[in-house]
Predict the 3D structure of the following.
Amino acid sequence: MMKKAIILTTSVLMLLISCQNNQSQRFKTASKEIDMLTKGLSDYENANWTEWSKQYADSAKIFQNTWLEGVGPETVKNRHQELISNLSDYSFDKKDITMEQIIDDRGRTWVNFWGIWKGTLKANSKEIIIPVHLTIQFKNGKVIEEYGFWDTAKLKEELNKLEYASSEN
């Protein structure tokens, strides 16, 4: 009887320890994927598009402010370049960045990013501030899926004002 109690107690303890170890592995604030995202953000800020593109798998799908239709990295790069052509500078506020990595119930690795993007318009030096959230899935050291959400209304409003003013001249 005592032997069965010891075996049962040991089994329960091992199960609890095993569950705790699995939980701790599912959430991280430091990882190679977080480091890769940090490098990708730096490449974006420095307009180093060759290096920025290397983080994506060939078949990567990127969803910007939508869940419906993903596009490839080349399309996103072109969008970024078009936007920043209107700016004298842009970057993420380093003190307001949060990143975490999770492994979901299906075993997929995701990195979540929250940050404050700041850009200054060339035409009038107006600063635009936009909170940004990214959720990025990594597989085999590459981004395979990315969801980005931010509100571009203020930026579009300012660009429309500039376009309207230039069309009146």
Observations:
- The beta strands are 27-28, 56-64, 87-92, 98-103, 109-121, 127-139, 142-150.
- The helical segments are 2-26, 32-45, 49-53, 73-84, 153-168.
